[in-house]
Design a protein that fits this description.
mainly alpha, 7 helices, three-stranded mixed sheet
Length: 181
């Protein structure tokens, strides 16, 4: 893994002390359907227990960008992306291991639920002090010529807008209405 990616991740990780007691692994590998994916690692023997660790998969290239390497992203964008992904893991903490199975099913089947979870991840990152980085990531992805319109449309559909992130209060979790002008 590129040193820039490691350094950006570790700087963000420091602010997520609530996760420091868990096993955690960051792996860079080819991904087909995302650029970064945070997920719990639940062993079969622990499905009904509370033991859990986490894994963050990081793609080698940004999804639908042609050949834009994750390692070549601006530092602020990397940090914003990591803050968002770690926000997902904080969100997972409210669920039992069995609850995570339901979470995954609902995330896969319900656009409304997926949108709420993506907004929650951004809101957690913002509450932990990463507003500027989250906004920079959103701007980069939505305004970059390197990112395909298909991916940008997916981001627009499910993720908090730049304006939403800028206006997101530090103390509450907003799910802002989708407004097409």
């Amino acid at each position: 893994m590129d040193q820039r990616i490691k350094d950006a991740f570790l700087e963000v990780w420091d602010s997520y002390s609530v996760l420091h007691d868990y096993g955690f692994e960051v792996v860079q590998k080819p991904l087909m359907s995302s650029t970064m994916q945070a997920r719990p690692v639940i062993k079969l023997r622990d499905v009904f227990g509370s033991q859990r660790s986490y894994r963050l998969d990081v793609a080698e290239q940004v999804l639908d960008s042609g050949d834009l390497n994750v390692a070549d992203l601006p530092e602020e964008v990397l940090k914003g992306w990591f803050a968002h992904e770690l926000g997902h893991i904080v969100d997972y903490e409210d669920h039992t291991n069995m609850g995570m199975i339901t979470y995954g099913i609902r995330y896969s089947l319900s656009d409304k639920y997926k949108r709420a979870r993506e907004h929650e991840a951004d809101s957690i990152a913002i509450r932990l002090g990463f507003r500027e980085e989250v906004v920079a990531t959103k701007r980069y992805l939505m305004e970059s010529d390197f990112i395909s319109p298909v991916y940008q449309n997916q981001l627009h559909k499910f993720y908090m807008s730049v304006e939403g992130a800028e206006l997101c209060p530090d103390e509450i979790v907003p799910v802002l209405p989708k407004v097409d002008l």
